[in-house]
Amino acid sequence: MRRGLRLLLMALVCALLGGVYVLLGSAVAPAEAPAPESTDAPGYFMLYEDSVAALESITVQPKGSQRYTAVSDMAFDQNGNLLGVYNALSQPFLVSGQEDFTFSTAAWQMLLLTAQHIPATATYPALDRDACGLTDPDAVITLTRKDGTTRVLRIGRLTSDGASCYVALDGDTNVYLVPYDFHETMVQPLNALHTLPSAIDESASAAVQIALTGTDDGQLIFTKSSGKLMAWSATSPIAHAGSTERIEAFITGLCAVSADEYVTTVADAAGLAVYGLDAPRRLIAAFQDGTIRDIHLGSDAGDGMVYARMDRTGDIYRIRRTQLTFAENAGLNTLLDRFVSPVVVATLSQVRVTTVDGETTLRIEYENGDDNIGQRWFWDENAVTRDEFTDAYLSIIALQFDQTAPQEATGTSLLADVTFTLRDGSTSTVRYEACDAFYALATTDGGGRFLVRLTDVENMLTVLKGEK
What we know:
9-stranded antiparallel β-sheet, alpha+beta, Immunoglobulin-like
């Protein structure tokens, strides 16, 4: 059973606040170790008992890594009762010289446990320390009390079953078995103990806005409006309907991103520049409950990773690029609705198509004002059936673009101006111009420039020249 110290760690926090905890479980001695000459009763026993109120600091020297010192920042009353933790990080320990370092919950809980007592499962009075990895330990921990006295622990290797590790105390000839997660946490380099931002529990349908910077199209902003058939629309750099399906897929991917590694914490723009984060690509989503997901992506970090920021601190992380595939091609081409003129017929009063040969108008009359009952449909001045009107109107609004037009694309001759007048009196126009042998250039009032297949535009004009 590999529960290790996890439940004890949780109970310890309660104990510091006046609660009581029970020691749980028992461990089996490793196969390669001899049976102990003496052990306590089955279950956990403590290697030592110290008052956390008496602790000054914990210094950890992981094998092959830089030493660090975690300084106690807990406040106690004169009787040693915990009053609280009042630093900005709300953590019981601060790293000396790196006071902005944020421990993961598991890390500071293990430090807190170490400050008071380490639960063990077996005692070995005469065990080969070299065989246990204690002559060249995986980590050395020094507890320094406020009175200047110290306690030194040495952490050896894991047992063959991985369930425990060997530990020795300076001044004590015994070797002890301690649950594996003490080794798992305390032999890690400091950076591995930093908290890592994780995925957030937000639904794509609850998002109200997204923004992207550093794309080929510049800064993109899409906003969601309630009560509309096409809820998402681009508001920058152009005004155009957005693709709900593709935007929600982008948001789902953004919410699922988590940091893979902590790198460092920087204090200013110069520090950000080292990681390409002074002018990052940003992926942002805002939600109805006020949550904002804002990930900054910087330069390549090697090993298939990229440097990133995931909050408003100076913390720098590495993120696997495989987590970011949802954003690789995110831009106007992928997030816009592909229809050039997605004007819903229920909102239409009329549409006029003007060419060099004249103009054609499709019009709806509403006999009862805003009441849809009693509609009449006209093609120029000729009354037509609803089906005839619909076929002609679909030839206009069914036009889709293949891609946004590059800056150098220009129109050579007018094909058609299509002007929509809505029931609320507002108007919008799309101009179609020949661009090359394959494409027409469509330009919208909202600033959109799209490449539409020339044959599709010609088919529209052919339909509108039909018999009314």
